[in-house]
């Protein structure tokens, strides 16, 4: 009897079959360049080939350090924090939304082991090509799909991670609804997103930066309130610079 692959397991989670399977991942967006209309320069750059080539080693760490400040966690620290917040165990199913080149997804694949499944979801072909090329554990699979309206069946994953992307979505609240829908009862959520600072002059600068780049600047505490409204509990919030890392239980 043939062994079930991680991609087979991923296909079992989908509400509808993919348009096609190409370059090592199922594609639900087909010929569309992205799931929805672009929200601004920050999002558009995610599909540029040069950006994907330097994203994991240079682009994301540099921008992350700028946003988090000197006291914020490193990229490796982010991966460790996300893994801890998600409370990953062997055999679980974890979804990495807006996975980029798959650094978090690969770590999650190691955490859930061969009997688990780590799915990296992104809308960018160039990012996913890099992710597939990087390989990873046999429990890792990738998917090109809409990150705001997830194509997975309800209550099918144990954990959802979305680091450095929620603020670039056209409808972040709809994305949170979708995260809640696919999580099993008791499932965990981990987010890294924007956090506008409270001091009035700096707050205005944060607002202008968000407008110029097309990113939503959340107020401190706002994401936690949005999660409580959706039934999440055990909410933790950690701030550094203009970012916040949030953990919650569904």
UniProtKB/TrEMBL annotation:
Keyword Transport included in the entry's annotation: no
Methyltransferase type domain location: 95-190
This protein's UniProt keywords: Methyltransferase, Transferase
GO BP terms: methylation
Region listing for Disordered, in residue ranges: 15-40
Recorded GO MF terms: S-adenosylmethionine-dependent methyltransferase activity
Keyword Transferase: yes
Top-rank lineage group of the source organism: Bacteria
Pfam families xref list: Methyltransf_11
Coiled coil: none
Name of this protein: Methyltransferase type 11
